[in-house]
Write a structure and sequence with these properties.
This protein is of the alpha/beta class. It folds into 2 domains: about 120 residues, Rossmann fold (3-Layer(aba) Sandwich); about 110 residues, Rossmann fold (3-Layer(aba) Sandwich), CATH 3.40.50. It has 10 helices and 13 strands. Strands 3-2-1-4-7-8-11 form a 7-stranded parallel β-sheet, with helices on both faces. The longest helix has 13 residues. It is globular. Pfam families: NmrA.
């Protein structure tokens, strides 16, 4: 595989999201020129050197100009204020093809979507990036850990091969700037399978203070999620994936090392990077 040349320009959609920011960082590390698409350019807060352009994936005409000179395109599958599955995939693909885009990555959002289907039928070099649970999801515990030194979760025996968001970005950046990734669907995991207790212990070690793990019943968890305003379909998804995690979510894949040439980052590394978020 060959590395990027300075002539490559990549348009990143969802650039201000948890993964999108890491795709941007991965591309910059490879020397690519980065153009970032966002609905609110004034609040993008992206690194120096990134060209920020305004546009909305639900209205492809709004960002057609941003595809000029682009060699790679990173797509998310949801858009708009309600984050509904995008129905504009065929139009986006047509614009990309007309602009001369060579490679497209799609961040898999769980299940097939119209946009992913359109990309995979495009005839372009596409790569689907399929991450398991994000390590960044642990930030949901930050308030309770700071104030109560406690994590309360259901299904505490569940397993996860959770992945550092920077590794997701690195895999996408490689696929956008190198030959050899076209037609691939990459499951992206961390380097180890963790229990909830493993995660809690790693956060405790990173912040230098013990954290207790308290198990909720499924009914207590559902009540908490409802009180937090989560929709019923999200509650159903969480109950299913936590209560019966699919094999790909609890099995280590070697994708990060195979694609990037270096080992996947551990949760202990992630916890050390974010230790301040968990301290009182």
């Amino acid at each position: 595989m060959t590395h990027t040349t300075p002539t490559q320009t990549v348009l990143v959609t969802g650039a201000t999201g948890t993964v999108g920011r890491q795709v941007v960082a991965g591309l910059l590390a490879r020397g690519a020129a980065v153009r970032a698409l966002t609905r609110d350019a004034a609040r993008a807060d992206l690194p120096a050197g990134v060209e920020v352009v305004r546009g909305d994936l639900t209205d492809p005409a709004s960002f057609a100009h941003a595809l000029d000179g682009v060699t790679g395109l990173h797509l998310i599958t949801f858009g708009g204020q309600d984050m509904a599955p995008l129905e504009t995939g065929e139009r986006i693909v047509r614009l990309a093809r007309e602009a001369g885009v060579r490679r497209i990555t799609v961040l898999h959002g769980g299940g097939r979507t119209p946009l992913q289907d359109a990309v995979q039928a495009s005839g372009l070099d596409w790569t689907v990036v399929m991450p398991v649970e994000f390590m960044a999801n642990a930030l949901e515990w930050a308030d309770a850990i700071r104030t109560e030194d406690t994590v309360r979760e259901p299904f505490t025996d569940r397993l996860s091969a959770m992945v550092h968001e920077a590794d997701i970005g690195a895999v996408a950046a490689a696929a956008l700037t190198e030959e050899g990734h076209g037609g691939q669907s990459y499951v992206v995991t961390g380097p180890e399978v963790l229990t909830l207790q493993d995660k809690v212990d790693a956060i405790a070690a990173a912040r230098g203070r013990a954290v207790a793990l308290v198990e909720l019943t499924p009914e207590e968890a559902v009540e908490r999620w409802r009180a937090a305003g989560l929709p019923q379909d999200v509650i159903g998804f969480l109950t299913g994936v936590y209560g019966n995690t699919p094999p790909e979510g609890r099995t280590v894949a070697g994708t990060v090392e195979q694609v990037t040439g270096r080992p996947a980052r551990t949760f202990a590394e992630w916890a050390a990077e974010h230790a301040a978020a968990f301290r009182p």
